[in-house]
Amino acid sequence: MSEFQAYLQLGFTHITDSLGYDHILFIMALCTVYTLIDWKKVIVLVTAFTIGHSITLALSTLGFVNVNPDWIELLIPVTIVITAVLNFFYVVPKASFSQSEKASKVRYPLALFFGLIHGLGFSNYLRSLLGKEADIVSPLLGFNVGLELGQLIIVFIILSIAFFMIEILRVQRLSWIHILSGIIVGMSLSLIINNEFLHSLLA
């Protein structure tokens, strides 16, 4: 296995790891208001997130940006809560489910901005893997590609479940959005409450 392939696998494993589910929760929060029918909109939204985390992943791993990882671990669940809460303000169009609809434009710049924060989180993990390795370009590229592959699979699963629930089981779309968003908010608030760095700040 080449170095590129090894780090690709590590990137894929990192974002799909159920034990470190914060990034999965964020992708879920981004996609909650959509199903497979809206795949074009989701691609634009996820691309904004990808651009954001790719920028800070590269800058931080190359040593151009250095942020206290404790702050990043605290801010990541905060970005999830904000994104999920925005879903409660989503207005389901009166037209049929397959009709085009106007998504809130604030979701795209927020996905880009929050992607910058998540990229710093990815870089902390990647730098711990690299150690004193001299050449980091190939590992950086492989890790980022692995992240994207894992991210696309997560998106496909979320959209497929939403399509099944809404189109097949006929669950009310707004009910689905609110239930899933509520679960995401609850799990993210748990991460914030149990954050040791937050406890040290409040002590």
UniProtKB/TrEMBL annotation:
Is Transmembrane among this UniProt entry's keywords? yes
Locate the transmembrane regions by residue number: 20-37, 42-65, 71-90, 110-129, 149-169, 176-193
Alphabetically list the UniProt keywords: Membrane, Transmembrane, Transmembrane helix
One Pfam family cited in the UniProt record for this chain = HupE_UreJ_2
Family annotation (InterPro entries): Put_HupE_UreJ
Q: Respond yes or no to whether keyword Membrane is given for this record.
A: yes
Question: What name goes with this protein?
Answer: HupE / UreJ protein
